[in-house]
Amino acid sequence: MAKFVWFILAAFCFCPNVALAQNSVLPQEVASYYEAHNFVAAFSTPQERNVLAAYRSEEELKKRIRSKRLITVYERIQKIKARELSFDPGITFPKSSRAREPIPPGFAQAEHVRRTSDGALIVEILIHGLDSKTNAMLVALYETGERKSFPDDFYKSNAPSRREIHEWVHRNGNWFIKATRIALLDS
């Protein structure tokens, strides 16, 4: 399996149309995506995210749920979904299996950003795990009004649990993340 991952990475990194330029800046649209991801991960539980993913519209949600926190989380989930390109989700998750969680648990921190020769961005992400106890504490702090933003100090106190490679493409003046991500086995 490790050889397969290295093969994919080698093929990805050495293709002539994806020559990497160092020290590219993260565009605001891309940074906003990760900020929304971290907000959703911090201020909702996995169970709440699965329930929210079932709603088709904000109007339907507001008829059934009165929590301002959950409405805000739903709005952020919709912003995240609007930035994702999916080609054929049936390949990765057959219709008979449970669909993937809309926002996986944990916080995303962009560590390295590179621009390819064809204009795409390659973003190396550190995923910092979030245990259920800390998640519940953050939700409670949000509900009481003590915290309404992502805790910046979280990265300092929690080691990353894994690394991922995200590819962003620029289409019609907007940035979109490809749904397929590479998860590195050795963090």
Give me the count of strands.
7
Give the integer mean of the pLDDT values: 78
Strand content: 15-25%
Query: Main beta sheet: strand number and arrangement?
Result: 7 strands, mixed
Task: Provide an overview of this structure.
With 187 residues, the protein is an alpha+beta fold. 42% of the residues lie in helices and 22% in strands. Strands 1, 2, 3, 4, 5, 6 and 7 form a 7-stranded mixed beta sheet that branches. A hairpin with a 4-residue loop joins strand 3 (107-116) and strand 4 (121-128). Helix 2 runs antiparallel to helix 5 (68-82) and helix 3 packs across helix 5. Mean pLDDT is 78; it is low at 1-23 and 94-98.
Précis, in short:
The protein is of the alpha+beta class and 187 residues long.
Layout of strands and helices, then pairs:
Elements: H1 2-14, E1 20-21, H2 28-43, H3 46-53, H4 58-64, H5 68-82, E2 84-85, H6 89-92, E3 107-116, E4 121-128, H7 132-143, H8 154-157, E5 160-171, E6 174-178, E7 182-184
Helix pairs in contact: 2-5, 3-5
Features:
disordered N terminus; 8 helices; 7 strands; 187 residues; 7-stranded mixed sheet; alpha+beta
